[in-house]
Amino acid sequence: MPGTLREKLGGAGLLHVMAAHSPLSARLAEEAGFDGIWASGFELSALYGVPDVSLITMTQHLDMVRAMAQQCALPIVADIDTGFGNAVNVVYAIQQYEAAGAAAVVIEDKTFPKVTSLAADGRQELVRVEEFCGKIEAACATRRSKDFLVIGRTEALIAGLGQAEALSRAAAYEAAGADMILVHSKQKTPDEIESFVRAWSGKAPIVLVPTAYPEMNAERIGKLGKIAMVIYGNHAVRASVTAMSQVFARIRRDGGIHNVHADLVSVEEIFRLQGMERMKANEKKYLK
Ligand code: SPV
Ligand code: MG
After folding, report:
1. Which ligand 1 atom sits nearest the alpha carbon of residue 118?
2. CA torsion, points 216, 246, 118, 29, in degrees to nearest 10?
3. pLDDT at 154
4. pLDDT tens string 189-215
5. How far is the CA of 38 from the centre of ligand 1 (A)?
6. 110-163 pLDDT, tens digit each
7. How far is the CA of 81 from the centre of ligand 2 (A)?
8. Beta carbons of 75 and 39 less than 8 angstroms apart
9. Mutation test of ligand 1: which of 110, 187, 209 has the most ligand atoms closer than 8 Å to its C-beta?
10. What whole-number distance in Å separates Cα of residue 71 and Cα of residue 171?
11. Catalytic residue among 35, 52, 79, 81
């Protein structure tokens, strides 16, 4: 099937994957030219106004993945956190996410319930390497298509366990079948990740989420090599919050919508994004 994530990975260059939390945000990412959608657990949690600590259920996240897959042609990389339990839960999750139209899953090696990675004082506990390898093996054995990617994510650096632990976990996850390795860091500069990438001798390409160290741009990633995908982890929800807060404040300050009106996309633009044209064509054709 042309355009699968695996095929895109085989092509030259870094894949840029944008976070989304709704079909509308997924479609905007598609129009902006991204290569894929990150179905972020953090974004969906924020959308519900709750912390990203395993409060959102698999069903809630899955429903959103399915809705995005229906409205957006880009491959979706589903953030399934810890796999919603043990390896048995992972088997069920993989069946569900593949059927819902995801192109890949990222499973992380934290305990359930997890705590969001970027919180300064977050409680970060990792499961045993063997236990996590069982989850990777379960995911790989369950997928129906080889094009469905299983990405193993290590939180060893997030948990402060150091580079040696991160490298040995990543190697174990690759040996267990992971197609790619996501290594996460909350250091404010890219040094920690750069030294991990330099030391990585595995064949599995690396995935980065440079939220905490934003100067790690495509040029810098390209120079490092070994990195096949960069995920912009929470920029859809942060962009929305920035925009909504500013507009809401202006309306309160101005005593009406008369000033902001001209700065916002038109209602017609929302009609376009909703597919009103298709609806009108159907009306013309079928309403008798
Ligand atoms: C997410 O977007 O849900 C992630 C990335 O897992 S982070 O929040 O940085 O852990
Ligand atoms: Mg997440």
Report:
1. 9
2. -60
3. 98
4. 999 999 999 999 999 999 999 999 999
5. 9
6. 999 999 999 999 999 999 999 999 999 999 999 999 999 999 999 999 999 999
7. 6
8. no
9. 209
10. 36
11. 52
Q: 14: which 2 tokens?
A: 């870094």
d(CA 179, CA 136): 10
Give the span between the Cα atoms of 36 and 33, in whole angstroms.
Answer: 9
Helix locations, the chain, DSSP H: 5-10, 23-31, 41-47, 58-71, 87-100, 129-142, 163-175, 191-199, 218-224, 235-254, 267-274, 276-286
Containing 150, the helix (H) or strand (E) segment is strand 149-154
At 78, list the tokens: 């589903």
Protein residues near ligand 2, an ion, with CB under 5 A: 41-42, 79
Pocket of ligand 1 (CB under 6 A): 19, 40-43, 52, 79, 116-118, 209, 211, 233-234
pTM recorded for the entire structure = 0.97
Q: Catalytic residue at 52?
A: yes
